[in-house]
Fold these 3 entries.
Entry 1:
Amino acid sequence: MRAGKKNKTNTTGTVYTYFGECITSDTMGPFESSLVHRYKYAVCFYDCATCYPIVYFLRGKDAKSVLRALKMFMHDFKDELKHCKTPGVVDTWHCDNGTEFTAHEVNDFCIHLGTKRTFSPPHCLDRNAHAERTWYTLLGPMRIMIAHAGYNELKAMLWPFLMMYACDIHCALPSTSLNGLSPHEALYGQPADLTRFRVMFCDCFATLRRVDKPSKLSSAPTKCIFLGINQKKHGYRVYIPSLNRITTLDWDVTFKEDRFTALANDVDPAELLLRCRAPTSNVNFLPNANRFRAPLLWKGGACRSAAAALAARGATLRDKVVWCTAARRRSV
């Protein structure tokens, strides 16, 4: 620990000294159903020692989804949880009294691992202040980023990318609660690389793989739209209009941060929702994304004809996504 750094304390005077000693959680939603994976809720895990927030996304506000997120959190940060009483397991987990947190299956899992559970009184938001504050910290930058890029319905359906990017920015910036250190530095011992951050939804240009180019005469740099940073794959997450695909590229990307492309003019939402689950797509922006993969439905021309019929009768963006979602559910 650096000289002069004070340990994080809460309103009760408890001093927290290591990651995982006390984790607070809360859920947020419902949001508009996301374009990728149809998420409608988010759950945060806030570490009281390092002020480091982590968010995961849920399809429903239920105990099964929250439990899955808790397991993924412990899996993703098992190395950082090595100082806990049981290495790899959270010492104390503090939540509100939502049924998604108080369910028997969640309690049984925590008892099995030896995780202590604490709850805030009903309707007392200040007793779960760290988690509640996390949403205020993230939602503000999300609104600013989407307004700066030009708000539209399709960008609003990409809210998980906005939330993850806002979380990355928050973790990289200094905090007065940590005496000028950033949450990233408090957790990993070194500051984050701020040169990686760019303007959300701005235009960028990158060189694609040979198999992704339409022809050998295609221009070397391909236009993309920036969707944040993929911390797991150490690259930029982008949307490629020419391929109608969301993927991760390496750091060799050229940005035009003052230019923005209207996504509504380039994206077929029904096709993108399916292409993101194709075996060739690497849109695993969540650790558990593979669990929600489904077979690609674009077989023959039936689905394309249905999408064309929807467009011909003036179907809205929401109609296309609803139709696509229903088709996927029938195929599973």
Entry 2:
Amino acid sequence: MMLQFCLSVAAQELERSALGLNEKTSQAGTTGASTGSSRTTIAASGGAGGSGNSMLGGERRPLYRLCTTDVVDVSFTLSPEFNQSLTVQPDGYVALKDAGMVYAQGLTLDEFSNAVREAYRGYLHDPQVAVALKEFEHPYFIAGGEIGKPGKYELRSDTTVAEAVQIAGGFTQQAKHSQVVLFRRVNAETIEARVINLKKMLKENNLGEDPHLHPGDFVFVPQNAISKIARFLTKPSMSMYMNASQF
């Protein structure tokens, strides 16, 4: 069954990454995200760093990357007069006090801290910068198709596809258990698709192959058999799997 798609709603959700969705940019500072939490995370200048593998089966816990509407607190150890709270604008930039615009979307906290440090080198000698993530959107996954309660759900812990289906109300009587599709964003224009035979896994009590979700993943349960699906899709081609009325 072909489900109609509302690109303005669903594609936007797939582009957010709440967490660890790998979108590298060619600019000196880069990222994408959103709002919603009072939890604070401090970025030590010069810590972990490195992006996770966004392909299915890759690294499960990539570093968080800033998104639009995220709020960060920037503090200067030796120059507190430059302390400021910044919101990532829709274009991905933040406006630094006296230092101009810096691109923040897509950057880890450590990368953003380095970008701020570089921006202030003309004003301060060896600026000591600390960045705290103040507000952000909690990681989530989307479930659609033939499940009890399609929609967007918080990804609160390590969750597999089978567990996501149960969280979203379980299969309907019309569900095609053997062809559950996991969609994952690879980059700004490409979605990776993987067909999972949950029926076989559950029957054989073998959930070792049950994939773990990444923030922003979309789990789709079809009604009819899917004869063929490409491993990589473009965003417009997602229209046959997503139904805006479910969200």
Entry 3:
Amino acid sequence: MNPRIARVHRRSDRSSPTAPPIAAPDDAPAAPIPSNPFGADLHKVIVDNMADGVYYVDTERTLTYWNLGAERISGYSAAQIVGRHCYDNILAHVDDQGRSLCHSLCPLAATMLDGEPREVSVWLRHVGGYRKPVRLRTAPVRDATGTIVGGVEVFSDASAVVQAVEDANRARRDALTDELTGLPNRRMFDAALSGRLENLGRYGWHFGLLIVDIDHFKKVNDLHGHATGDAVLEAVGATIQGAVRAGDVVARWGGEEFAVLVEASDDPGLRETAERIRVLVAQSEVRREGVSVVVRVSVGGALAATIDTPESLFARADGAMYAAKHAGRNRIEIAELI
């Protein structure tokens, strides 16, 4: 016990057994506020450790900050990014029609011009070469006078939801996924296709089937080896997965073929998804051992009819895919309704 407090208590005890507690003098120093363990960098520590990607650019569009979330989502480290310009097209943002945003349609540049926040869905190019869907939000940064001095962009990974991850993990345990790409395999896809056809007949829930085949895949293996071929399969599978909606099913059918169940009620809806897949794959690349490999895909599709069986629907979509091959590759064909 503090000796000074102890003496006061003894005097109080002698004067009154029920003496009130002694108040601190008015001029007593206030108790110190615990110091911030991070010092002036507290906000930076918080932003650095956000799950979302965050980066800042000045009015010259020079990237001066790149957090850990951005590293995790894009694969690019801060050392690779900071000091460069966002119009250097490092992430090569494109929209769902494959249009480049970095030079003419950049949401962050537009926000710094008019001061209006924006929120859009885009596809960035991961350091691994494949396309990853992200949801990005932009905001202007102003100084004390209200002048815009830069812009901040926050982007989040939009390629999966928690339930999808849980379903994929469960499917993997049940040996229903492709070992190389991590996508559902043919066995799981067959079950999903049968279920969709049953729902079409019972509830009228329309859907379509797309068959996606990598053009000239044998040449990739012959020129660059099977390890690069496997990397191409992984990249194409990841790009297709990022190009479809949450309710769609993407599977590796076998070899260089992928199959996609698409929630679509008409030909334009199915065609739109097929074209998005084709465009995004064409703008992806695989980088391996100093070599960059770009591939194209041919896509065939068919809308399911109530009289379809799994075999008849697949035959129509597969026939459309071969028609796309014969017409020159890197294109889509949709079979006529029956």
